[in-house]
Predict the structure.
Amino acid sequence: NAGVTQTPKFQVLKTGQSMTLQCAQDMNHNSMYWYRQDPGMGLRLIYYSASEGTTDKGEVPNGYNVSRLNKREFSLRLESAAPSQTSVYFCASTVRRGLHNQPQHFGDGTRLSIL
Amino acid sequence: KQEVTQIPAALSVPEGENLVLNCSFTDSAIYNLQWFRQDPGKGLTSLLLIQSSQREQTSGRLNASLDKSSGRSTLYIAASQPGDSATYLCAVNVGGTSYGKLTFGQGTILTVHP
């Protein structure tokens, strides 16, 4: 069982280039999330998708776009990369059963450097 | 705005010690609280999730407690082992229209030396 799979694992971009980070989960989860992790800042939510067909902004959405392609896949796009977007990006997913949230499951991250 | 603080930022202990990691949050209207473990270069692994109606959760040598009214949670690790060395993160879920959106603390870096 793969869980949450992120690709690529590492990427180096030049300022102004664009790229898409891919995320797929095989746990039939409804909700998916994109976080970034920076030293001294902890993890911060960029965008999330509560269910297929919906997306919403998180705490730090500027400079990013997302697509919930289907129930399994949730991609994050940087249209014009900036050095401030150098970070480790994590995708996560979860499901709600009855009244209760279940734990969020995380991928191993994409380490992105913008030169 | 919900803010989550973890104390201490780093902790180094000899193998076998019992230890407590602390997490505090500013808004008590949470849906649940989750403790994660993160190994270097890896993603987060969920350790324990406490619903707002619960007081504690246990898994093996780990015990997490929640006091919503005071905005505090603790993670207790019994008989620590070198394999417990990692960064421990707590995160609160405010639920409702923010369903599933987690606010994280900055973590406690734990080192258990033989």
User: Anything to note?
Assistant: The first strand of chain B starts at residue 4 and ends at 7.
